[in-house]
Amino acid sequence: MRVDSEPFKIITPEAPSSKRTPRPDWLKVRLPQGKKYFHLKGLVREHRLNTVCEDACCPNIGECWGAGTATFMILGEVCTRACKFCAVKTGRPPEYDVDEPRRVAAAIAKLHLKYAVITSVDRDDLEDGGAFIFAETIRMIREACPGTRIEVLIPDFRGSESALKKVVEAVPDVLAHNVETVPRLYPIARAGSRYRRSLDHLKNAKFFGIEMTTKSSIMLGLGERRDEVLEVLSDLREADVDIVTLGQYLQPTREHLPVARFYTPDEFIAFREYGMSLRFSHVEAGPLVRSSYHAEKQAAALA
Fold it and tell me: Labelling 303: which of 22, 96, 284, 287 has CA 20 to 30 A away?
């Protein structure tokens, strides 16, 4: 199937409503279960940690936790931005916990993870956006688990190059920052963020003289047009991004933006083929794909 085989009509996201569109069969997942799932859940509670798996209502939590993997969310659980697609709490965060990096590293050591993903809420209340805590978390994981590969999914730090440099100099194996959607939908879906700033953030990550794999992600189903998606993929490649993921947006609650369109598995395959034609090192695309979904396999494709 060609990615342009069927034109998409322009859809502007509506205000949140009480009606929710039923999910197609290919988006239905099993309830979380199994010993590994409950072991990881207990470990997260024991170390007083947050995971984006829970806070963002990820549909893959059963599969990932059942396999013993999780994406840890640092800098607390309250975000200073209020993106209309995201289920993470918003408001004024409390002071960050300086012991959090050590606890994250301890949990990863107990899980014997070969690959760890670390993300965070936006912390616009902090001068460096939380970059120091990201760097400390990377360093603590290196000390506790020298064989573990580390991926960080960072916020835009309001475009601060000095904050970005702090994280890059801690030398994660993969540095990710998600553009999330097309530029036209930023005012609706990503208030407080800027598309060009996110692109520059990804491009600048490779300007500090440290070899770095970069990664970004796009959600589909917010009302974007096909040509806009293709343009974002081209922009990411021009920014020298190595890995890109594309997944289906799912409305987390009735207070969030509704789903404008459900894409079929075949359409995701077509987008993947187009992305690979642009010479990304790896493209992961599918209805349930998220930035950190099978992250270790995505990174392994570059090895």
Answer: 287
